Protein 1
Amino acid sequence: MYGTWADRIEKGLPQMNHKSKSKSDAVWQLRAPGPEDYSRVAELADQLGYPSTAQEIRSRLEGMRDSDQYAVYVAELPEGKIAGWIGVSIFRTVAADPCAEITGLVVDSDARSLGIGSALVQIAEEWARSRRCNAISVRSNVKRDGAHRFYERHGFQHIKTQKAFRKDLAASEVAAEVSSSATKDSQTQLHRVSSSANIKGDAPRNLPYET
């Protein structure tokens, strides 16, 4: 429905070339990722602390093809290497107006302090403005002091500290199925005991369903 990631550039996704502050005066391009980038995006996700495969990246991006709600950009160096990426999306809740949220930002450990992270944040902000967002936010692990300083240098303010909770629904479903199966087996066994006792003329005792 929304076309490929490459097609999305032509449908309103901001893109830009940015000159770094490094002595080499290198230039990189910020663009939407293509299938040829998925392996490298996965490698950088690993650096961020989220091990992923190229197939997982492809599947996730397929679910983010609505360019009015999601955007992902990679920073490509002149030699074609992907040095970083950023994800941004519209965060919606009943209690507040929609705002943009950075869902992931990473720059290769070998390409930091060149201005790539700043350029990625800038294009995420441009995308957010183009979607009429009045604010952009980011969640950062309390242990990432360097990331906190980076965001503060770019105008982000620390507004609160939270605890994040997560429930594994797949594991919960399996546990529920096991519990349900165990209950059925127990009831079947009790029914057999009850039937056997009635046949012998003895009333079953201490059964869970006795009144």
Protein 2
Amino acid sequence: MPATTRHARVPALPESTTGQARLLYLALDLGERHWTLALTVGRGQRPRVRTIPAGDLERLTTELAAARRRFGLPPEARVVSCYEAGRDGFWLHRALLASGVTNVVVDAASIEVPRCARRAKTDRLDARKLVTMLVRYIEGERPVWHVVHVPSEADEDRRHLERERETLVADQTGLVNRIQGLLATQGVRLALRGDVPAQLAAVRHCHRSCAHGSSASGCASRRCGRRCGRSRPRATGG
């Protein structure tokens, strides 16, 4: 879960409640194939809801211009936006800032109405809900949600490297466990360390050498154990 803070500093918010300038509020619900946009100019104004292809920033710019005209705003009217933290990460946040849009990324788990309690889970409902809460947040109701701290690109790159390493280590451990499980079905107990392909080649050689015997698995276990440094089995009476 991303680190969050209830009272994160909002970057240079435009004048929203002084009456000197009207804002265009934008909430984005980010789907895998489509984004749902909800746009409004404040409380009491029915949001304008549009759907665009996911990742289409040119279409997003077009919709912002159309919304400004629809609500009677000047072309230079400031835009404040939000979206929920998720699989898209922070690239969109940076793209919005670069285009002059003031954006906040919010923790989905902190939104007032839990998702599981909603009667209808739809992008349209989520976008409307988000834009309503965005208006409240900008007007000073900070507790409506938690704002996610957006890391620098350098910090984010480091996190990706750390997570990639953790994933690779976990994959390696799982693979070793599966190989050892398969070997165990043939009576082979082998600690896989160092040159694993060479160890497996030794196992295959042992099985070929002992295939004619009545106890091939036992022979493979004993011979591979000796070859790989395992102690010899204890002698049994009889």
